[in-house]
Structure formats: structure tokens, C-alpha cells
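With this grant's support, we have settled on a layout for protein records. A representative record follows, to show the layout.
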Amino acid sequence: MKQSKIAVIGLLVLTVVLILSGCGKKSEAVQVAPSAPAAAAPALLADGSYFAIDTSEVAPDWRYFVEVSVKGGKIVSANWSAVNPAGDDKKAWDMAGKYNMVKFGGAQAQWYEQAQRVEEEFIKIQSANLPDAISGVSITFDEFTALAQRALSLGPVTQGAYLDGEYYAEKADFGDSGWKNYVSILVRNGNIVNVNWSGLDREGRDKKAVALVGDYGMIKASGIKKEWHEQAQAAEAYLLKTQDPKKIDLKSDGTTDAIAGATMTVAEFFTLAQKALAPAKAASGPLSDGSYFAIDTSEVAPNWRSFVELTVKDGKIATANWSAVNPLGEDKKAYDKGGRYNMVKFGGAQAEWYEQAQVVENELIKAQSTDLPDAVSGVTIHIDEFTHLAELALQNGPTAKGPYQDGEYYAEEPTFGNSGWKNYVALLVRGGNIVYVNWSGLDKDGQNKKNVASTGGYGMIKASTIKKEWHEQAQAAEAYLLKTQDPKKIDLKSDGKTDAIAGATMTVSEFFTLVEKALANGPRTY
């Protein structure tokens, strides 16, 4: 969403100093305005989007922020990132290999990977009161906890008029003063949440940083005795308040009486802000707001059953999640992040599956279309299933919210039965609805019951009055649950069978019992 930047901006943020500063220090914990403690979510939080951004420094290398989403009174997602002076998002910057704490700082994992682990811990415990140490995290996260607390204390934000993203505009050339001024803007939840007005000279020095250390010299001629960076901040604060670069009364000389604390020319600031925000106009799109979902049903018992979730706000695709579930109900992204998939080690891939999936998701959000290019930078995995499922999800329309907590559920029998099988049930819940069910079993050799039946090795069809194999009747029971959404809504006979499910004459009572047990157990933790 940005226009091209002059090269020296890239050089500015690629220093080793910047790399090391990303690790953070306890003594440099972010400062936020005092607020009532909100470290936990002990009671139901109001549903909505929460946001807080660090304002403690004038011109930091990275200005950190935290986004939190609450549904059903619970924290369901979190995003900890930062924005640099040129408006680049830290996670996107890092995923593109331009931050690289592992290479330049000797870290155990990239910054964005460690940030994701902090986010996951926050969601898991439903509290910003995080433990002192989190497995797999070496960066300090005081700034995250402070900002998360601040975001929750501020309450849900009101949706603004712009499309979320990072926006940038700069002057065409260096002015007579030797500076090429620029404006970068961060939009979250439709609101302008960060503005940076600065400039670069031909040596790559940042105007705000130069003014901050007293080397710009405006204060000497200023009638209000304020340096350039202070007056620039006053203009930025005005835009943050009005949320509209057109809402300013300018004089013919480019100054204004509307901004207390700024007597210098500000016309170029508002012109650049308008230019930067031109692509951010959030005209309502053709999609209805809500959550969309689709899951692959093309195979009987795949190793991974892929699915796609989309969220639409103001008619635009705001979030996307591409993942999959295995027969035991484990989420592929969580499985991969736990080091158990590992395409890099075992397949020689350039990045892990979940990392490449995130790149594809971001491309969809950027393009606002499932018509993605054949090749996406940084992606070697096939994306056809993603685009197909995303299209299907949009065709299905928004889903109605169901009664269950989102997650992956599992239950199994305590012992192997007389038949030699230990049966189990795995469930996937999204949008509060049961969207996937797998009823199967394992024998002592580790063979999967559904796989054995689908290849003709189980033998139920020989004795079946409806000539259906075990896996086919199991699928009929699964389909019944997907339709009713309640394992208690079944009339069972004394022998465990039912007349309610067309296509299943075998005993199904154990299936519904295991489903009840799985839902009672609650979602898996990773």
C-alpha cells in the first residue's frame, strides 16, 4: 500500500544497531499512560478490537503496537508488531528476511516467530500477566505486556473510515533546504493510529532525528521557541485527532492557526498525508461483513484436511487463515510451529509451511481477491487448494455464530476393545460451529480403522444389510452430527443403534459418547 521510497530509508533501518535494538531490554520497558490494571480477562470482555501503541519516544527505530481481538468475551487473537519511520511493518519486514535476528544477532529464532509465541501465550492464559520466561522466547516482552494491558484498559475501538495498512508518500525531489520530506501513516481498525512526518537529506540523515539533537536550528528563529520536530509532532497530533488531512484551514503561506504549537509551514504535511492515504479510502465493498469458512471434503481420510477462514470488515477481506487438521484433530500451523512438520529440515524448503501460508494469506488480503498470481514471492508450496477454498468460503457467505468455543477437540476410549480397536473422535470448531468430525480408531499396530476400511481390509460390508463398509457408515454418523451440531440430539436404541441416520445400521452410541466427552474436555492446548 506504499509508494516507492528513496533508497536511503532502507539503509537507515538495516543497521546492526537496529537489529540488536529489536531484542529489547528490561531496563527499556515501554512507557504508556497510567491505566487501571487490565492484565487479565477475569470476566467477559466486550467483544471487539482493542489497540495500543507506544508513544514514549519521539523518533524510535521501531514504534511498537499491540492489537487484540475479543469474541464471546474471550481473547481470540493478538498481534504484536511495530512500525519504523518509513512505515514498514516489523513482522512483514522480518518475514521478508530484512531484519534477521538469527543471522545478525545470533538469536534462536526470528523476531516475528518469538513474537508469535508471546501472542500465543497471551491467548492461552487470557491475561497480560505473562510468566517471566516463555519457551522459545529470548526477546524481552515487557513492551508487549504493557501495551496489551493498555489496549484492554482502553476498551474496544470504533471502526474508522480507512482500510487497514501502512501508507507512505514523499516529495518528488530534494527541496531548496536539502531535505526530501515524507509522511508515513499506520491505519488499524480503520483509524489513523500513527503518523510520522520527517525527511531525509542526501546523506541519508533523518530530519526529525537531526532536529531532536539540536542540529536543525529552527528554535533560534521560532517565535514560540520550538524546534522542527516539536512542531512536526503538533501537526501529527492534529491529524490523529481529526482523522482527515483535508480538515485543516491553511493560510496562503502554508501556515495555520488551527494547530497550537506549530507556526511553521505545514501545508506540505497535509498534502503528503492526503497523497499517502489516497489508496486507503474504504468504500464499502461487495462482501457482507462477517466470518467465512470452507473445508476440503474431497478425500475420505487425508493426512491433512485443509480449510480456510476469512474475516470481512467494511466489505473488505481483513484477515485470512489457511491451515489444516489431521485425523487426530491437530491444527497444522500449531503442529508446524511445534517443530513436528519441518519442511525445511526434511524437505529442503526455503521456509516452513506455516510461514509460507502466512505469506499467501497476506497476498490475498493485499489483492482483495482469490485470483492470486501463479508465483508468490517467498512461496514454493502449492496454493491452488488455498485459492479454491477461499473462493468456496466467499461463495458460502458469512457463517452464523455457533455455541462452542473455537478449537480442536479430541477423546478416545480408555482401552482397546474386544475387536482390537481403540476408537477416537476428533472435532474442529470454527465460528462456534462443529465444522469437521473424524470418527476412527487405532489398533495395537497403529493402523487407522478408517483407512483399513476404505481399502477393503475391515470387512463390514460382507455382513451389512445396506452393503456399506465401516468408514461409510462412520461418515454418515459424522454428517448427522455436522447437521444437528449436538451429540445429545440422537435417539438411540438399547443396542446402541439408531433409525435416525440413513446409511448407518451399525452401533453408533460410542461415537456420540466420545463426541460429548471431547467437547467436555475442551479445546486442545499446544
Summary: Confidence is low (pLDDT under 50) at residues 1-42. The CA atoms of residues 457 and 508 lie 20 Å apart. Residues 111-125 form the longest helix (15 residues).
